[in-house]
Sequence to fold (720 residues):
Amino acid sequence: MSEKNTSQVFEGSVCPLPLKHDEQIIMGHGSGGGMTHRLIRDTFLPYLGSPALREGNDYAGVSLGDPASLHGRIAVSTDAHVISPLFYPGGDIGRLSICGTVNDVAMSGAVPLYLTASFIIEEGLPISTLVRVLESMKEAAAEADVQIIAGDTKVVEKGKADGLFITTTGIGWIPEDVNIAGSMAQPGDAVIISGTLGDHGIAVLAARGGLGLQVEVQSDQAPLNGMIQDCLKVAPHIHVLRDPTRGGLATTLNEIVGQSKVGILLEETSIPVRPEVASVCELLGFDPLYVANEGKVIIILPEEEAQSALDALHNHQYGKNATRIGSVTAKPAGRVLLRTSLGTQRILDVLMGEMLPRIC
Amino acid sequence: MSEKNTSQVFEGSVCPLPLKHDEQIIMGHGSGGGMTHRLIRDTFLPYLGSPALREGNDYAGVSLGDPASLHGRIAVSTDAHVISPLFYPGGDIGRLSICGTVNDVAMSGAVPLYLTASFIIEEGLPISTLVRVLESMKEAAAEADVQIIAGDTKVVEKGKADGLFITTTGIGWIPEDVNIAGSMAQPGDAVIISGTLGDHGIAVLAARGGLGLQVEVQSDQAPLNGMIQDCLKVAPHIHVLRDPTRGGLATTLNEIVGQSKVGILLEETSIPVRPEVASVCELLGFDPLYVANEGKVIIILPEEEAQSALDALHNHQYGKNATRIGSVTAKPAGRVLLRTSLGTQRILDVLMGEMLPRIC
Fold:
């Protein structure tokens, strides 16, 4: 509310002493008063301070560009991030909160432009932890080329949250000629995955420590908007883009076949999984096709553009292991089938129950 | 992420049994798999299901209108709502999460159009509680004439949150000729408040029960966008609009004098406070000028438009008690002064520390 986007206000009133990194969050930091402003001035703004955020209004007023070119739509997506632990190999909640929402906006074919970020902080969180997260958000936002234009900070009592939750909302622009959606898959289309599956889920699981796993797997979390734009240049008729996050590849493909009323046939031997991820999954009885990813995209597109898209993916740092993994079929509509390494076929259903809670 | 905006997907896979209201939220509802989809299908979509939400993509693709008329900017605002308790006289977290963000967007002079809503749910929350909140959100969104176009649901373990947190982000459209901001107050401007102060804070405090207060005060939470548009019709040169939420009137006015580099002189005898709110404040040592409001707006505008604005406010259900409470002065820049009922002047500073935690 009115205290959110604050920068140079309260000059005469706020304690001039800078907030120290060895302090902790206390309830007063969520008051909306002087302590909130000091927290924002000394921690949030140095990292996330876009011009709109620094204006200090209740809202950000931002342009979408030249009205003459505004033939199209905005793409909007939101995600609450509750991942545990906050830091893990390959990333942290800060980078995740930027990449997760940038990617969802990018799945429309849009160019992501603006993000908002809301923080729910548990009393007692060290300021140094918050600063590490904000540094990571700044870096990820720069890489994704998005501005954080509005924010909010709330503090709850110790025991009423789990360190830090971050909700981000993204806004992008979909040009008029782009029409990408889960309902657009056509029989005969190729199905591509941009890289190995399960890295994020297994990296976070290993970081939890309880299982005594010693695995050298890093989360794959990354902003994919640049790579997707590269693909669209050479494969302009992409039908579906979707990132296989919670629920993994299998659940996400089930969403798509439900929306498009088609089937998908996957070739198990083509699906890329790191050996170390495969080992952990075997050990724990997980199927990597259901494990969460945070830097992968499923691309469904006409057969004739598949090779161009693969070439573009292979030229990008986040698409080196991109592979064609299957095809869209007319029947059985609404079903994902897997042709196993033995040559048999089985139905890949959606994830039921919960395999890895708080993975994003 | 990919499971968010889901409606008709998974038809063949999801349990066809409807979710019952006597069930509770369990971790599987946050999996992104079949249980998440069932929750969304049976609780969220019946209440919040806009066309964009029902499309079931990772993003909402929505139009801003005829490109020929798109001379202007978007207004964006975000708020995390962590209020405790979830229900209180005059409202609940659902209505609050809609009104809070609609109002922040409206403070730009924009017409609010779209909202996103992210839910962080503690394991064990009764489905019936969630449904009550969603009913309330639906009603408030209809009153404010906004569509909920994207959402997300996360579940955390019992003890890792406090029932339910809701983060909403709002998007509106600011016409080209509207230029309202905290930095626009001018010496000589009139300062208006749209009604009585402190109702929300005292209603929530009383609902907590611990103080044994028996007070007949209702929260004032309301969507103010309609009333503000009425005002703009008769007072088109409004300089500043801001809702005095956390930190109350005093803190909010301090923000404005900081941004505009002006002073404000308030007349204590003009400031409307309900007798029952004043009594509780006196009992507890609170100053109603620092207590949160959720259905009030501060309007700062040229003297010559003040009466027209007051007339428009008095004609609206949420502005019956609107009053002129002071004036903008050139000096002392950055300070809010209060002329007391005794005729003396004192400085009204920002709220320091925390008076009423988790008030929004």
DSSP finds nine helices and 14 strands in chain A. The two ends of chain A are 26 Å apart (CA to CA).
